[in-house]
């Protein structure tokens, strides 16, 4: 390539890098360890998702057996993935087999006399677990987006995925609130209350039991098959919990948070914070039918299995309403955010938590940059002392390498971390290493009596393979670090990958162009080279 075009290319690349990186403070994104924020490792309890799936199937099976008028003594759950049908009438066994074959084909049937056991296929169980993790990731991402956190990291941890999720949220100022918003399932349900015999809703409100046994006694000791007991916390005027009451509610929810179209914070007629909701068209029709047919009844609102409100149905409601629960402004805002993003499919447990303050991040930047500058200064000093004027060539290439590295990171939107600064320092050393290989080859050629022009040409051509081989193998290793690493490891790999490419360009192309420029200035033969 003509020397003029070489310098045109070099200046074009440098200009683009400077344009991409300027201003540096605004263009380079800082990682959690430099900017401050919160680092969480969470575990998704996928057993909850499997249990929820079997709860739904159990209720559906109970309804199918009832509609088919099949006699049995109830359903139970021998294990997490099994449903038991007790004491089936032998005369109705063929009808039960036909029902299970048509409607429950993914289940394995084990007949143990009059008691039958349905076991969910292991592949289906695995798919439920996998779906739960994917849904948890998606829900958390939605909540992060609505929370306004910039440049978050949300991903599964480990090579093979698993139940762990890594979350890094730079710049978060209130970690406790963020944690509560992200890990609360926020599963909303509306359930009709089941009144004991000879009780009206008003009568029951006067004697709501404070024990589960008290509820059962009102039904003569045995609850109806489609009824379960749920708790409600009783609050004093100052918001403190002074007791617990228990309500008998239908197991099957009339409407759930899945049916929500939108939710936002609002105010009731007295100015108290509430959550206003809008249902989907289909859910609106069901809710309208439910409220029309159950005027005067109690429709409890539950959040994550706990009653937050037990309003009376006074009018027909179609697709809009409010949720009251004695919320503060912040609680109403957070609940509406959670409901808009959808419920988490399973319980999430925090396994690891680290919080980095902004001051600690700033201190890390200062120390990291100081270490990089000291290292760079020592490298520059060595090159100038050992290789004399040719060392200036290496110093120029070194400076351009740093410019290209920062420009590429800014253009690609890469995040700079503290290990990333270490990667930059390592890249500086590797860039100089390439220059050292070239310079030593040139020295060998000069000792063999070659001319300066021939020595420079031979030095670059003979060092070329060695430099490429060493850098490509390191680059491949850095790619694996980036692909399978998380957090700090990935930050180190990013700067290493970009730095290696930049160093190969500066060591093999820029340095050669500088030497060629030096030779071109001599009209005659160049007898000496300061190296």
The domain tally reads 3
Distance between the termini: 25 Å
The parts where pLDDT drops under 50 for at least 5 residues are none
- CATH topology annotation of the largest domain: Multidrug efflux transporter AcrB transmembrane fold
The name of the CATH architecture of the largest domain is Up-down Bundle
Strand content: 15-25%
Structural class: alpha+beta
**Count of helical stretches:** 16
Counting DSSP E segments of at least 2 residues, the number of strands comes to 19
What's the overall geometry? elongated
Question: Mean pLDDT, rounded to whole units?
Answer: 84
Helix content: 40-55%
**Spatial order of strands in the largest sheet:** 7-8-2-18
Main sheet makeup: 4 strands, antiparallel
User: So, the CATH homologous superfamily of the largest domain?
Assistant: Multidrug efflux transporter AcrB transmembrane domain
Key words describing this protein structure:
16 helices; 19 strands; 3 domains; 531 residues; Multidrug efflux transporter AcrB transmembrane fold; 20% strand; alpha+beta; 4-stranded antiparallel beta sheet; Gyrase A, domain 2
């Amino acid at each position: 390539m003509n020397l003029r075009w070489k310098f045109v290319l070099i200046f074009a690349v440098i200009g683009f890098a400077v344009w991409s990186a300027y201003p540096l403070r605004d263009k380079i994104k800082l990682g959690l360890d430099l900017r401050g924020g919160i680092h969480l490792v969470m575990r998704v309890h996928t057993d909850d998702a499997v249990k929820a799936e079997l709860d739904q199937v159990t209720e559906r099976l109970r309804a199918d057996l009832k509609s088919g008028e099949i006699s049995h003594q109830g359903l139970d759950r021998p294990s997490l993935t099994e449903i038991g049908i007790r004491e089936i009438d032998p005369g109705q066994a063929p009808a039960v087999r036909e029902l299970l074959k048509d409607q429950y084909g993914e289940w394995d049937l084990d007949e143990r006399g009059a008691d039958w056991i349905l076991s969910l296929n292991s592949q289906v169980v695995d798919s439920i677990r996998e779906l739960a993790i994917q849904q948890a990731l998606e829900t958390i991402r939605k909540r992060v987006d609505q929370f306004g956190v910039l440049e978050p990291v949300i991903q599964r941890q480990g090579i093979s995925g698993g139940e762990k999720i890594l979350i890094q949220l730079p710049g978060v100022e209130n970690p406790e609130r963020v944690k509560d918003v992200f890990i609360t399932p926020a599963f909303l349900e509306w359930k009709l209350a089941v009144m004991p015999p000879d009780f009206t809703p008003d009568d029951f409100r006067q004697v709501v039991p404070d024990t589960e046994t008290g509820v059962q006694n009102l039904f003569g000791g045995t609850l109806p098959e489609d009824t379960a007991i749920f708790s409600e916390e009783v609050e004093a005027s100052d918001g403190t919990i002074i007791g617990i009451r228990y309500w008998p509610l239908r197991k099957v929810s009339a409407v759930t948070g899945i049916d929500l179209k939108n939710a936002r914070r609002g105010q009731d007629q007295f100015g108290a914070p509430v959550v206003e909701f809008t249902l989907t068209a289909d859910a609106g029709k069901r809710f309208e039918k439910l409220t029309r047919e159950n005027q005067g009844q109690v429709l409890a609102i539950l959040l994550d299995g706990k009653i937050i409100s037990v309003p009376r149905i006074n009018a027909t409601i179609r697709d809009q309403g409010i949720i009251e629960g004695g919320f503060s402004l912040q609680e109403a805002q957070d609940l509406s955010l959670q409901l808009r993003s959808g419920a988490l499919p399973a319980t999430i447990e925090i396994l690891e938590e680290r919080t980095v303050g902004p001051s600690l991040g700033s201190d890390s930047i200062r120390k990291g940059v100081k270490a990089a500058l000291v290292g760079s200064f020592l490298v520059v000093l060595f090159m100038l002392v050992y290789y004399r004027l040719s060392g200036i060539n290496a110093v120029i290439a070194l400076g351009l390498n740093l410019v290209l590295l920062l420009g590429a990171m800014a253009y690609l939107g890469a995040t700079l971390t503290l290990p990333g600064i270490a990667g930059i320092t390592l890249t500086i050393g590797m860039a100089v290493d390439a220059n050292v290989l070239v310079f030593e080859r040139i020295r060998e050629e000069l000792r063999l009596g070659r001319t300066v022009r021939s020595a420079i040409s031979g030095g670059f051509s003979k060092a070329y393979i060695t430099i490429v081989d060493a850098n490509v193998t390191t680059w491949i290793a850095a790619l694996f670090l980036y692909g399978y690493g998380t957090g700090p490891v990935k930050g180190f790999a990013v700067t290493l990958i970009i730095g290696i490419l930049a160093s190969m360009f500066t060591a093999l192309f820029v340095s050669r162009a500088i030497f060629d420029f030096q030779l071109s200035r001599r009209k005659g033969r160049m007898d000496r080279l300061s190296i």
